[in-house]
Design brief:
five-stranded parallel β-sheet; alpha/beta; Rossmann fold; 129 residues; 5 strands
Length: 129
């Protein structure tokens, strides 16, 4: 009997509730275990009890931005190795310049194609040989 592949875990952090819930539902249909947070601070709080394989995050959010959450996650030895995938509705070059400044190069722009997200997730969660 073939062992069932364990679900890949995703922490999805986005203040657009409708978008976040839709993306969660789509990823769950593709066998991901998805936890939602609606801002960066809630995302950090979730990391205390949930260890994702990937964090998908919006950039501009109340309380704590995606970039600030990224910096805090990368500063902690327990979470520093978790890869990030950013999704944003902003097309502002200043946002992209800030992303590069803190070491972020993986940003998808909304509206996103779910297949594009799933492709990036497979890249980020497939063990390197």
């Amino acid at each position: 009997m073939q062992k069932e592949q364990s679900k890949r875990k995703v922490l999805l952090v986005d203040d657009e509730v409708g978008f976040a819930e839709l993306l969660r539902d789509l990823l769950e249909m593709d066998n991901y275990d998805v936890q939602l947070a609606h801002d960066g601070q809630e995302g950090l709080d979730k990391l205390k009890t949930f260890t994702p394989d990937v964090i998908i995050s919006d950039i501009v959010m109340p309380r704590l931005s995606g970039f600030e959450m990224f910096k805090k996650v990368k500063a902690s030895p327990e979470t520093a190795s978790i890869p990030f995938l950013f999704i944003t509705g902003f097309q502002d070059e200043r946002v992209l310049a800030e992303a590069r400044k803190v070491g972020i190069f993986g940003i998808l722009r909304k509206p996103v194609d779910v297949e594009q997200i799933e492709h990036r997730l497979r890249e980020l969660t497939t063990p390197k040989s």
